[in-house]
Structures are given as C-alpha cells and as structure tokens.
Amino acid sequence: MHTDLINLKDVGRAYAPPRKDMHPVEPSAEMNQQTVWMLAVRDGRDRAAFGALFDFFGPRLKGFIMRSGTNGAQAEDIVQDVMLTVWRKAHLFDPHRAQVSAWIYQIARNRQIDVIRKERRPVPEELKLPETDEIDASQILAVEQDAAQLKAALAKLTPDQRAIIEQAYLGELTHQEISAQSGLPLGTVKSRIRLGLERLRHDLKGLREQ
Amino acid sequence: MTAINHHTSDALLAAYASGNLAQPFALVVAVHVSMCIECRAALLAHQTVGGAVMEAGAQAACSGGLKASILDRLDDEPAPEITYARSSIFPSPVMAALKGKPPRWKSLGMGVRQSILSADDTGSVRLLYIPAGRAMPDHSHSGMELTLVLQGSFSDETGRFGVGDVEVAFDDLEHTPTANVGPACICLAAADAPLRFTSLIPRMLQPIFRI
Ligand SMILES: [Zn+2]
Q1: What is the architecture of the domain spanning A33-209?
Q2: In a domain, B3, yes or no
Q3: Cα separations (Å) of B134 from A97, B164, B190?
C-alpha cells in the first residue's frame, strides 16, 4: 500500500525547524489547514499555528461542550484544558492514523466526563509510534479524504438520522439506545475502519522489526 | 499475539468514545482496545465521526480573554500526571484501576478468587481468578455483563474465549463459563449492578445441559 510515497521535501516549508527528537512531517499544500497547523505545533512548537488552531476549534469546542448542558463559563474552562492538552500532548498526534478533529474530539469528551463525573476515564494503552522517519504523505491524505467523505455522507443524511448521530456522539445515547437505532449509518463508519487497521498493522510491524 | 475472535460492538465503542459508558464497562472497552488493533481502528473511526459532528456543529463565540489566557499558560509546568505502565498480564488501564498495586485476591472457595476494582450503583468491575476446570461462581446479573480474558481461557455455551477476547452477555443468557485446561483463567468482569454471587457452589457441579 505504500507504493506512492510523495516526496514532500519540495513543498512548503513555512514553519519553524522541527525539534531533533521529533520525526517531522513536512506540510503539504494538499493537507488540510488544521493538519498543517497541528504538525507545526507538534514539530515546531509553533505558537502562531497553535493560535490558529484555537481560532478554528475554540468556538466549535465551546458550542459542542455547551450542547451537552454545560454552562458557558465551565465550557470555557474545559476549552482551556482541552487546548492546553493539545499543546502538551502534541507528540501523541499522528496524522497517519487520525484527523486533528477526531483527536481533539476524544480529548474534549474525556475532559468533559472527568469534570462532570469527577473521575478519571479509563483510557487505552498508548500504541507507541514507530521510531521511523518514514513519511507517508499518501496515508495522511487518505486519512483526510476519508474524513472528508465521511463529512459529506453526514451532510446527506436526513435531519432525523443526523440528529441521532449527533446525539450519539454528544454522549446523549446509551449503548443500548445506539444499538437499537437500526437507521444509524454505521456502515459509513465501518468503511473507515479498514484504512485505519492497515496503518496500525503497518506500525506494529515497524515496531517488531526494530 | 494470538488472534482475537470475540470483540466489543460498534454500539459499545461509540458509547465509549462519546463518554456515555459507565466506568466498569469503559474499563473493559479500554483494556480490549489496548489488546485488539481491530477495535482500536474501529474506535479511531468513531472518533472521526465525533470529530466531524463537532466540526460541523453550532459554534459559540469564546470570550475575548480566553485565547490570551491560554497562550499565557503554554509554558506553565503541567500538574504531574500519574501514569501506570502495563505489568505482566495487566494492560495499563487495569494497572490504573489497581492504582499500580498488585490485585488483592479474596477467596470465593474452590480455588476461585476475586479482586474487586470498583463497585457502586453504576455497576461493578472485578478481576476473577479461576483455576483450570473450575466454573465461574454462579452469579446473577441484571442487564449487561462484559468478561475479558487476560490469561488462560474459558468456555461456555456460546464458545471459547482466549486472551483478549471479550464476552458480551445480557441477562437472557444462561451461561456457565468454565476455565479450560492450562494456566488459571484470569478475567476482567464488569456488570451493570453489583455482581451477586448466588452460591459458592460452582455451576460445574450442576448439570449444565441447558442454555
Ligand atoms: Zn476487538
């Protein structure tokens, strides 16, 4: 699957040089803006890029958090915690596996649950990133294309279906209620699983070969 | 790595991603995802949907000072975070639930032991230690029960469960999980209500030709 590696050395180099202990991914003109900002934060500790991420995600995060019943002031506290986590844990962001919004979504849900329930949510073991400089731009773009297709599919849902999806991912439906929703287009989700799985297998293989 | 044959469901993963899964079940899902790359990939997919919903949803303007206040804090030393590494058969989320200490086993008789990790009105989660050939103590569960194998294996009327496998059982399932020959079966078991053992006599002593 990794046949057409794009050489990114020739495209945009608009951000600070990466730290030595990171494995930089050069931004591509084709990558979406949030990915480029996030990589600049991860590899270059770029504050301007972080500010741009805040400008984009801040109001979305606040709106999202308030929809599940949290008041404005507490929502802003959570936005602050989430964005600081994005800065501090940037090294865990891997664009080969997930979109920026997917990564931030999980950070936000975890933080909101921790605040509401005053308990630490159990989280899976981190899967180590392979110690390799291999940059697979085709994979990053595939992850983004996937997410774009998903967004397009969500936009085409009937208002009822979309409301159910929103409720489910806002944490308003129990697992019983989700499984009872036969109309949920989980097939759209499933189509994404194969790509992610291939990448994880690839990463694990890389880890074993070290 | 042995193949995992019994997985969590999409509904459980979606509820886990969205945070709407009680702590005991969330722990089992987090442990299974730690051990199963298929469900890790599935969780990534659910997170992508969540991210898309968040991106497309209604926005709320942040107050003027918020951005500056966050930027001011970028160099702050974050509060130290306690992390728990995997220890032998226990993936890190189990070690976190154990607060880094070894399990405190309590005997249930017949060589069967348990170590309760948490139990309250949202449910309970425990480690169970079942010697080869022994059955899980007879228990009643209302609602759902998730049982994940960390060592050894067990079998019941629905199949065989090895390391990493998770059995999703509802209260309509009459089952008698019995540890297979080999190392003792150690599992992580979560239930909706505090799991009540109705008898200390393992079911293997009862005729089990019923489903
Ligand atoms: Zn699985």
Answers
A1: Orthogonal Bundle (1.10)
A2: no
A3: 42, 20, 20
**Alpha carbon A93 to chain centroid, angstroms:** 8
pTM for this structure? 0.86
> Are A171 and B18 within 8 A, CB to CB?
yes
Say how many residues make up chain B: 211
For the segment B65-121, what is each residue's pLDDT rounded down to a tens digit? Answer: 999 999 999 999 988 888 899 999 999 999 999 999 999 999 988 899 999 999 888
Q: What angle do CA A109, A115, A116 make, to 5 degrees?
A: 90
Q: Which residues pair with B161 in a beta bridge?
A: B154
A80/A59 Cα distance (integer angstroms):
11
Cα distances (angstroms) measured from residue B133 to each of B4, B169, B176, B202 = 22, 21, 12, 11
Residues B108, B197 share a domain: yes
What is the interface pTM, i.e. ipTM, of the complex?
0.85
Q: Find the CB nearest B27 among A102, A108, A122.
A: A122
The Cα B45–Cα A168 span in angstroms is: 14
Q: Residue A67: which of B20, B58, B63 has the nearest Cβ?
A: B58
For ligand 1, the distance from its centroid to the CA atom of residue B40, given in whole angstroms, is 7
